[in-house]
Design goal:
The protein is an alpha/beta fold. The protein has two domains: 129 residues, Trna Endonuclease, Chain: A, domain 1 (3-Layer(aba) Sandwich), CATH 3.40.1350; 84 residues, no CATH class. Helix content is 51%, strand content 13%. The protein is built from 13 helices and five strands. Strands 1-2-3-4-5 form a five-stranded mixed β-sheet, with helices on both faces. Helix 9 crosses helix 10 and helix 10 runs parallel beside helix 12. The longest helix has 24 residues. The protein is globular and about 60 Å long.
């Protein structure tokens, strides 16, 4: 299960989610902005950086690491990354804190003695998702994090319960939650077809944002053509435009070779790509995806 991309989406949708995990969040938590940064020389990639508002005095920068596999040098890397980033941006921040999210304690690296001062102080926060309590009693965004750890035998039931809670939210918030739940479940049950996942959740995945955009743009193009054949061609053209627009927005201008490869894909594959690209972190991921097909 590709949890890195899921947590990236969660923090993008709700940056304040990180602070719901802390006992003493900053008073201006609502003003923080989520980002993912890379540090050159040496090359470091930090999972998540939560930046205080720029229009206020120097604030605290929060670093976040999501770790679902044991790494016996995790703390060495996290503290090196955090210290280097803080050093290079010292004028912008008054302090730094780090949050490490684990599914459970048994994933944590075994030798933590060299880092005892940081780990036993107030600067580093370790979160174990299986210790946050009953998923049904948690705030909805925190519950989504826990949903990624739930066993497959229980996940459908818990997912349907979380879907039922979206009725209490605004339309915009409800759609965002439904998007995340369906994404988590599709990743968790990769062996199932889309229809089987739809049946499991009692919803239609084609009602999600990406499919709505594709369907609407395709419909508009189809109307202009005025014929059944024209509608299908218009839908495919609209999907190509949508996919290229999304990729360009995330990674910059695409090469002519990549554009040609995408343009030549059949509609069913284009629709798969429109969903898969949400998980891409670079154009290398796109290239790999295209080569596999």
């Amino acid at each position: 299960m590709r949890r890195d991309s899921i947590f990236y989406k969660l923090f993008q949708q709700s940056p304040t989610l990180l602070f719901q995990l802390l006992t003493t969040p900053p008073s201006n938590a609502d003003a923080y902005r989520f980002d993912s940064v890379a540090i050159k020389e040496p090359r470091f990639e930090i999972d998540g950086v939560f930046l205080p508002p720029e229009n206020q005095s120097a604030g605290v920068v929060y670093f976040c690491e999501v770790q679902f596999q044991t790494d016996e040098q995790l703390y060495e890397r996290v503290f090196a990354e955090s210290s280097l980033y803080f050093y290079r941006n010292r004028a912008r921040f008054s302090d730094w804190q780090a949050v490490i999210i684990y599914p459970s304690r048994n994933i944590e690296q075994s030798d933590i003695y060299p880092h005892r001062s940081l780990l036993n102080g107030e600067q580093v926060h370790r979160v174990y998702l299986d210790e946050l309590g009953d998923i049904r009693s948690l705030p909805i965004w925190v519950a989504l994090m826990v949903l990624t750890t739930v066993e497959e035998s229980q996940a459908p039931q818990e997912a349907r319960y979380l879907l039922s809670r979206t009725q209490e939210l605004t339309e915009q918030a409800s759609r965002a939650i439904i998007e995340m739940i369906t994404t988590i479940m599709v990743y968790k049950f990769e062996q199932l077809s889309r229809m089987e996942v739809e049946s499991m959740l009692g919803i239609t995945l084609k009602e999600t944002r990406v499919y709505r955009e594709i369907k609407e743009e395709g419909r508009e193009e189809g109307r202009e053509e005025g014929r059944e054949e024209g509608r299908e061609e218009g839908r495919e053209e609209a999907t190509v435009k949508l996919v290229i627009r999304q990729l360009t927005k995330r990674f910059g201008e695409l090469s002519q070779e990549m554009r040609s490869a995408i343009t030549g894909l059949p509609l069913s594959v284009l629709e798969d790509l429109s969903e898969a690209l949400l998980d891409f972190t670079s154009l290398a991921d796109l290239q790999t995806w295209l080569e596999r097909r």
